Amino acid sequence: xxxxxxxxxxxxxxCFMAVSAGLGSDKGDKDQLTFAYVMPMAQLWYAYLGDAFxxxxxxxxxxxxxxxxxxxxxxxxxxIEDFIIQEPDMIGLGSVSADAAQLAAQKAxxxxxxxxxxxxxxxxxxxKVVADLEFDWYGLGTMMADVTADNWxxxxxxxxxxxxxxxxxxxLLETFKTQAKKRGLTIVGIQNGEYQQEVAYNITQDLIQxxxxxxxxxxxxxxxxxxxxxxxxxxxxxxxxxILTGNGAPECLASVANGELEGTINxxxxxxxxxxxxxxxxxxxxxxxxxxxxxxxxYITKANLDEAMPWDSANDKxxxxxxxxxxxxxxxx
Length: 333
Known about the structure:
Layout: H1 2-31, E1 34-39, H2 44-59, E2 63-68, H3 73-86, E3 90-93, H4 98-111, E4 115-118, E5 131-134, H5 137-151, E6 156-161, H6 167-182, E7 186-192, H7 197-210, E8 216-219, H8 222-234, E9 242-247, H9 250-257, E10 263-266, H10 269-286, E11 292-294, E12 298-300, H11 316-330
Parallel strand pairs: 1-2, 1-3, 3-4, 4-5, 5-11, 6-7, 6-8, 8-9, 9-10
Antiparallel strand pairs: 10-12
Helix pairs in contact: 2-10, 3-4, 5-6, 7-8, 10-11
């Protein structure tokens, strides 16, 4: 009988130890945060954004899961549904459309998982997001007009823009037109360059061949800017026309340095990726994040090239700068 009781006691102790070990293991897994996020693509802008996000996550000991939607709404929603099943602590989304973002928000809300969107409009509906990281599209349009008027007052301006009809570009054009009129600029044309170098090249070539007079031409991103440069250079007009771009990619900065571009409005996808991560981390750990966070931007010329924000921000220096910006400009303690 004593042997039986002793054996039962040993088995009980062993079972308790096993359960305790198991509970400890589960607790350890639960304590480590997991962030899942969907990107529309893995190249160009989003490659820099993703690298910076992953760098910050590693520094903060946060697990990540990532999916690529290829700008396909069905793939985007499928990725959101798959993430919900995996129960991450938060989900981030760069959406293909306002309606898709609204549907994703509804699904995340129903699952009780906080959702952050970046560079994405949110259609009206019951779905809510905890934060939206955006360019200040209205501010960008105003800055484009002010940069032009400050440096080339009374000029005739042509704009090769992103996809007209999408929310962000429409917001940019709305304020650009208003501010250009207020500042005495003449807009001689606006055309959809589809963010593509070849499309922008063809538009600029057609513009030059048409004989329409213009002084300044804007390209809304680096690819379109490079297409504009190529067409203007081939026409022998680099010394006569002013070329400006948005986004301030490394190629843009190189073109500013060699004089092909007069300037670029610089903003960094890598810095954006760091702020994206910090917003998610601050919300899940502190319960505090603004509903709208704007990406910083600055007009860069040859005179202040050293002030440009680098696109590659997957490093300690950039993370420290992002942390300071986040806690002093976005979250005020």
